[in-house]
Amino acid sequence: MTTTTVRIWVYDGVLASGVESSIDIFSVANTLIRESSASSDGRHKDFAWSVESLDGRSVRSASGRIVPVDRSIDGHAPTDAVLLAAPYVGDMKPFMERKGEIAALVDALRRQYARGAVVASYCTGNYLLAEAGLLDARPATTHWSKIQEFARRYPSVQLRAQELIAEQDGIISGGSVTSYVNLALRLVAKFSGSAIADATAKMMLIDTTRVSQASYVSLSPDDRHGDALVARAQRRMEAMVQQTVQLAGLAADLSVSERTLHRRFKQALGMGPLDYLQTLRIELTKRLLEQSDMTIDQICARVGYADTSSFRILFRRKTGLSPREYQARFRGSVPGATGP
To answer: Is 66 exposed, middle or buried (CB count within 10 Å of its CB: 0-12, 13-18, 19+)?
Structure first.
């Protein structure tokens, strides 16, 4: 039986569960591989792993717990895969200011990828893959709350915010926090086959039907962009959400050209003004589904849509769920409500 080596790279501030859960998945997979190999030709690859930090010392997780480390990170050490743990931080700016540490991690990631290792990370760990240039012109995802910030910082990345896992050319990118479970299973499937991965998921009661994080995503753009013109336009659109908004009229009200308004929105928010209005209406709908007893027809009228059927289609495309499914998941059934 051959062995798949996975190096799990850690540093201060990671989630301990992202490390230990991945190891548990590899361990359960090994048990199933050995059982399978006893009655087959032994083609499945067993897993061996090591937890590594830059200096070879234990690190402190986001919760303050100590994560034991086996050895130091080496960009030249033979391995089949590198699994980079993600920092759990609300604000990425202080983390990204750890420049020496990040430079060392980025260099090691590049070296391992160049020598043929599969490189994987999830959540905010994708910032480091992007810093290394490994996500340039490739699909990637990240934590849903970081979508706009990530898109502004790394414009050459093909960001697929709704996807739970994105993969291309030996780079695997996972979405929000607990996508580390799906990421570890993807590595099991990649090196030991989908049958072992499926059996591991069943043994550990992991829901593998979870393929999108769209329904959890807050589509509201970040309002910390610093563009006064865009901020004024946002306030006007928020006040006019029930009305038909024409770009020409909005631009005239703000004393700028349509072209200027569109360009400033794209620069500040990564989307045009009419896309912003659509996003605003979807977010308001989500809030009303979570908090009110309004029917879908009433909600459509409240957010400025006359065609309920078209709005249902739009809502599903944006969130991955119908309005009724969204309400059931995030609020529960509403007594007396006649929803979608």
So the answer is: exposed
Cβ atoms of 276 and 262 within 8 Å: the answer is: no
Which residue segments constitute the domains of the chain, with CATH numbers given? 3-216 (3.40.50.880), 228-330 (1.10.10.60)
pLDDT of residue 18: 96
Report yes or no: 166 and 141 within 8 Å, Cβ to Cβ: yes
**Is residue 80 very low, low, confident or very high in pLDDT (cuts 50, 70, 90)?**
very high
Q: Is this structure's pTM higher than 0.85?
A: no
**What pLDDT is recorded for position 136?**
97
| pLDDT score, position 163 | 85
CA trace torsion 119, 125, 131, 135 (10° rounding): 50
Do residues 26 and 184 make contact, with C-beta atoms less than 8 angstroms apart? yes
pLDDT tens digits for 26-46? 999 999 999 886 545 556 679
